Structures are given as C-alpha cells and as structure tokens.
Amino acid sequence: MLVEKFKNNTIILASASPRRQELFKELQIPFTIEVKSINEVYPTNLKGEEITNYLATLKAKAFETSIAENNIVITSDTIVWLNNKALEKPKNSNEAIEMLQKISGKSHKVITSVCIKTIAKQVVFSDTTVVNFKQLSTEEINFYVENYHPFDKAGAYGIQEWIGFIGVTSIEGSYYNVMGLPVHKLYQELKIL
C-alpha cells in the first residue's frame, strides 16, 4: 500500500534490532538499514515516554547532517517501565536475572517511541502496552537467560521467545509494540507524512 507512495524515497531504518527489521519487512515497504552510534544517555528527570521520545529523537539527530532530500529516517527506542523506573538492556546475566525477578508476578508497561525525520519535518510518537507476567520460578529465569541471552532487549526479555510463551498471562495494547515497534501507529503516520 505504501510502496507506491514512497517509490521516490529512500526509507532508512536506523535500528540494529532484528525484531524491528522483521516487523518493518512485514509492512511491505522497501527500506535500508543504517545505524549511527550515539551515546544513549538521557536527563534523569525524564519519566516513561519522555525517555523513549528523547532517545528516539537523539538517534534521529545523528542523521541531521547526512539526510538527503528524498530520505525518510526512522528511529526508535523501547523501555520497560516498572515502579516508576526504566528497565533498559541488561549488561550481563546477573542484570538480566535481576530484571526478570523484578517483573515476575507483576504487570509493567512497555513503551516504544518512534521518530520519523525528513529534511522538512520531524514527527515523534509513542505507544504503551501493559504486560502481565506470572510468577516465574528461579529455574525458568535461569533457563531463559542461559539459553536466550536477552542482552539486547529492554527488560531482559523478548515476548516472542520462550519466556513470553510460558510467562506472559495477558497484554493490554499492541503485541508488536512489545517487540519494539508499534507498527499500527507507524503505518498511520507514514500514510499522512
């Protein structure tokens, strides 16, 4: 549907995430991948989607000097929000285990922000999904971390992986948002771009 609209554009997905790339492919829009390294640090006073909005915008800013006339740059950022704190990507197994212990038996929010940037304009939007987890056993947490190495995932889990199959009891909102891209909102925003 959007292929015709963007036939004269180069859409750049600025994300190394295999999940985002997979979801983008399913939207049936041709795209290229270009990732610029940035220091993902945000002001400590930011909360919830303020954090992801800030980081998605920061990632887009890295393209400011290199963006061409027909380029559309899309950046994104996801966090798990629990007890008024952001759970980002774990640095190691211990951090991953600790994060999974925190979300075990509770509900948390997954917040993803997307920034669409062209030479002429910039649009930032976010989506929030509530995820409910059953009480996870120590064995289940250890098995998941040892076998799936969730170090590139906010909150140390992928809903589309084993832990999601056995641990997620319900969600309120977009499943794909939890994977890292609110594709329904992205589609809408691209339609009106």
Automatic annotation (TrEMBL):
Alphabetically ordered keywords of this record: Cytoplasm, Hydrolase, Nucleotide metabolism
Record EC number: 3.6.1.9
One Gene Ontology term, aspect cellular component: cytoplasm
Top-level division of the source organism's lineage: Bacteria
Site description Important for substrate specificity, residues in chain: 19, 78, 160
Main location: cytoplasm
BP-aspect Gene Ontology terms: nucleotide metabolic process
Entry annotated with the keyword Cytoplasm: yes
UniProt GO MF annotations: dTTP diphosphatase activity; UTP diphosphatase activity
Cofactor(s) of this protein: a divalent metal cation
Active site feature: 77
InterPro entries assigned to the protein according to its UniProt record, in alphabetical order: ITPase-like_fam, Maf-like
Subcellular location, record wording: Cytoplasm
Reaction equation(s) it catalyzes: UTP + H2O = UMP + diphosphate + H(+); dTTP + H2O = dTMP + diphosphate + H(+)
Pfam families given in the database record: Maf
NCBIfam families registered for this protein in UniProt: maf
HAMAP family: Maf
Family: Belongs to the Maf family. YhdE subfamily.
Biological function: Nucleoside triphosphate pyrophosphatase that hydrolyzes dTTP and UTP. May have a dual role in cell division arrest and in preventing the incorporation of modified nucleotides into cellular nucleic acids.
Protein's UniProt name: dTTP/UTP pyrophosphatase
Source organism: Lutibacter maritimus
